[in-house]
């Protein structure tokens, strides 16, 4: 593998760095974007119970805020539990936008790598081809050596595509996952607002 990288030229090392970064980000997002961590199952019921038992204290709100992204949204609602419905919903939306930004962290980088990797591979191939044809002399060339050189140059394109395809799949997966989390959080927050304003039993 090392011999292939050395033969393919310096552009392939850029692709290697991109692959390491993409792998690290994918692992980090897989560990962070877990439904049990983002949307704890019984958290809304617990918050409703705290509200009905009138146990809302600064310590409870702080603990809720640190528990999960959904906790951040619901803690914003608890802080404004005595405010009018519009004010309460506005505070939830503000907290939700901050949570959405956190959930989308690194996704732009993943998308950029997925888009850029094939272009980097093509760039490496072009550089390799220029070097191959530039090294030929006027007396002629060895067809076998030329074919070998071209195959080595194409490693860049192949490696670029090999990076781009799984990265793109994970990028799309994470985007869909984040969108579903945001929708679920909005729905749970609206349920809590309805409970507070006595429109939901």
TrEMBL record:
Family of this protein: Belongs to the exbB/tolQ family.
Leader peptide range in chain numbering: none
Intracellular or extracellular location(s): Cell membrane; Membrane
Residues spanning the membrane: 12-32, 106-130, 150-171
InterPro entries referenced in this protein's UniProt entry, alphabetically: ExbB/TolQ_transport, MotA_ExbB_proton_chnl
Protein name: MotA/TolQ/ExbB proton channel family protein
Boundaries of every MotA/TolQ/ExbB proton channel domain copy: 68-186
Record-level GO BP terms: protein import
Membrane topology reported for the UniProt record: Multi-pass membrane protein
Protein's UniProt keywords contain Transport: yes
Claim: Transport is one of the keywords in the record: yes
């Amino acid at each position: 593998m090392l011999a292939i990288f050395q033969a393919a030229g310096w552009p392939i090392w850029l692709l290697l760095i991109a692959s390491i970064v993409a792998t690290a980000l994918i692992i980090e997002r897989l560990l962070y974007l877990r439904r049990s961590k983002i949307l704890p199952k019984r958290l809304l019921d617990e918050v409703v119970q705290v509200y009905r038992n009138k146990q809302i204290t600064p310590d409870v709100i702080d603990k809720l805020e640190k528990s999960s992204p959904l906790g951040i949204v619901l803690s914003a609602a608890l802080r404004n539990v005595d405010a009018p419905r519009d004010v309460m919903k506005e505070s939830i939306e503000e907290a939700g936008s901050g949570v959405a930004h956190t959930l989308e962290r690194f996704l732009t980088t993943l998308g950029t790598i997925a888009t850029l990797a094939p272009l980097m591979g093509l760039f490496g191939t072009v550089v390799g081809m220029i070097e191959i044809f530039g090294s030929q002399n006027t007396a002629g060339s060895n067809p076998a050596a030329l074919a070998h050189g071209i195959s080595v140059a194409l490693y860049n394109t192949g490696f670029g595509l090999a990076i781009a395809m799984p990265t793109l799949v994970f990028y799309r997966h994470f985007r869909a996952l984040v969108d579903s989390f945001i929708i679920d959080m909005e729905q749970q927050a609206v349920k809590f607002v309805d409970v507070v304003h006595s429109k939901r039993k």
